[in-house]
Structure prediction request, 182 residues.
Amino acid sequence: MKKQVAGLWLVLGCGVLVAGGCASNQTVKKDEALVPVAQAASPAAKKEEAVQGKTVAQAPVKEAEQSSQQQFKNALDKIYFDFDSANLTDADRATLVKNADALRKMAGAKVRIEGNCDERGSDEYNLALGEKRAEAARKYLVAMGIDPSRLSTISYGKEKPADPGHNETAWAKNRRDEFVVQ
Prediction:
């Protein structure tokens, strides 16, 4: 009986040592972002920040890259469609040429083309029409030389109106394709 109690104490003691020996601090804090090696601060900057007790700040390269990506996102314009149509107008084609030029400048970027409709029509009809609109833009961009693997499409139908109004002005804003950098 004493051997069983001693064995139990031994097992419990080992369990306490193992549990007590585990690190209680997180190795990566929730608010710290991981910085890729190419974007990390210089060794001198890391040392200086470590001396001051600060975390490593993102390098100026990161800020320049974010600025470039923001400019790229702003370079992709929406296109708008006529009522009950997925046909590209001359204005749409001109916008898509501009978008294709922007896509060529940022070769690695992938873009989701989001087809949207106004509130008129059934959910099923608007989802199908939104898909036709997104596909029309995708096909045109591919014809302009953009790699199809960089482009994806989705239809939101009437679920994401740009203007919540219930008139022709609002509906015209809602019949659109948006280009979202992923």
Summary: The chain has a mean pLDDT of 78. The chain has six helices and four strands.
